[in-house]
Amino acid sequence: MEFNLMRRKLLKAGLALPAAGAVSSRGLRGHPQADSRVTYSTLGRTGLKVSRVGCGVGITPDPRVIHRAIDLGVNYFDTGRMYGEGNSERIAGSALKGTRDKIVLASKTDGKTKDEVFRDIEASLKALQTDYVDVWHLHSRDTPEAITDEAVAACEILKKQGKARFIGVSTHDINAVVDRILGLGKFDVVQTNYSYALNAPFRKAAIARLHEAGIGVVAMKVIIAVAGFVPKQIILTGEGPLAALKWVLLNPAISTTVPYMKNIAEVEMNVRAMTEPYTPADEKMLYVLNQEIRPLYCRMCYECKGKCPKGLPIPEELRFLAYYDFGGDFKQARAGFSRLPHEIRRIRCSACSQCAIQCPHGVKVRDRLIRAQQLLS
Fold first, then answer.
1. pTM score, two decimals?
2. I want to staple 258 with a disulfide (CB 3.0 to 4.6 A). Which of 56, 107, 243, 281 is the partner?
3. What CATH number is given to the structural domain containing 97?
């Protein structure tokens, strides 16, 4: 029903969307060869040459997906122990065996102390079957305080030891941490969310500041805002995710992107973003899709941060829900929610007669939080 409504609205806007169940002629039916038009950029001051579309290995279940990405010219692979219930690095390590000198490999740590950072990299290197990573991120640092001096010092030691060639930060709230990152002057790479739906002026400005400082910027969450409105139909047959990815690549400050690729069809579609122009039809499609998800999709502006009278971490709960509703990954959504403190997980928005939070982007915050709590708790 939702897909048919979406189709009618797109047709009214002058766009075409394949019928549900159709398969792209460039998808699983055939395996096009690497395109010489695939583009590469320099990952900031690292000097590393990376494909502008990389591969997020977070929920990639099949090593053949990674092999296909390499065949088509993708050379940047992003993973982490916190993805895929701990399986992401093992899958990546097995699939990337024998290609280490051809690819750029990034992984992450949740660690805040030296011991935690050191412990995590040893576990990651073992799972990845390598003796070094190219980029080692302090993962999900959404406040300045989360980028601890101790963790930064540990990363610098790993650089000297050769276990991490370069160090970075991944964040969902770039506006909150950009001053801390630039002030430290230690980081080579930053991974942050950026998409057609997540294009607030503050986010663009922060990305530009990082780029001007010589820091390589990796964009994540690049297609989630449109890929998940009708996950199966749009991801497998539609052009929405492709248009969204092409839009991100319009920004020269973005060195590479790390969309999740769960199957070969997605790999081949995503690679097309580097070889096909962004068109007026793409713009129309993204506009329509963006309007459709307006009451559902959190724009991660963090205007609601800290404003819930009961202390709910609203952006975090909405982000975890988005992993499922807009990414189709229930396990990641449930895992993220389960990491919240027990007393937070017990709070129910349904107990409030009226929500104190009004989203400036039109998201129905109370309804979305109730759904998150019912689905993920």
1. 0.86
2. 56
3. 3.20.20.100
Rounded Cα distance, 308 and 142, in Å = 18
Helix (H) or strand (E) holding 320: helix 314-325
Q: What is the pLDDT of residue 14?
A: 46
**Which residue from 276, 278, 251 is spatially nearest to 194, judged by alpha carbons?**
251
Residues 191, 169 contacting (CB under 8 angstroms): yes
Q: Take residue 207 and report the two structure tokens written for it.
A: 């990305």
Q: What is the CA radius of gyration of the chain?
A: 20
Q: How many domains does the chain have?
A: 2
Computed over every residue of the chain, the mean pLDDT equals: 87
- 257/343 same-domain check: no
DSSP3 helix / strand / coil % (the chain, rounded to 5)? 45, 10, 40
List the Cα angle 305/309/311 in 5-degree steps.
60
Q: What letter would DSSP give residue 136?
A: E
* Pair (189, 61) in one structural domain: yes
Domain membership of residue 236 as a residue range: 2-289
Cα 146 to Cα 139: distance, rounded to the nearest angstrom: 9
